[in-house]
Amino acid sequence: QLQASGGGLVQTGGSLRLSCAASGRTLSTWNMGWFRQTPGKEREFVAASSWSSGSSYYADSVKGRFTISRDNGKNTVYLQMNRLTPEDTAVYHCGTKRYSGNWNDSRLYDNWGQGTLVTVSS
What we know:
Layout lengths: L1 E4 L2 E4 L4 E7 L8 E7 L6 E6 L6 E3 L7 E6 L4 E6 L8 E8 L11 E2 L5 E6 L1
Parallel strand pairs: 2-11
Antiparallel strand pairs: 1-3, 3-8, 4-5, 4-9, 5-6, 7-8, 9-10, 9-11
């Protein structure tokens, strides 16, 4: 099970770092992704990390502002979010990418844990 944390209330232009920790699973050999969701909308891709190639993938809306990273020693994946805007307000979830296919397809991920709420005030 994955547990996302680090959300909170921040002003426009501020930063937050989200963490995704795993219990009973070693994340270093899993492809990982961050998605976000607002009420009434589909889960939206934010960022992903390939464990094998070390490549990272980002939604256009966050490219240049967000960074996904790993700390294998802590079995944790992070999402550093800078220059936040009210449009980034959502519940952020992390998941493991179990199936091959597009990195931005949430149906290819599982092990979703409880998300963490990020609220950006204007």
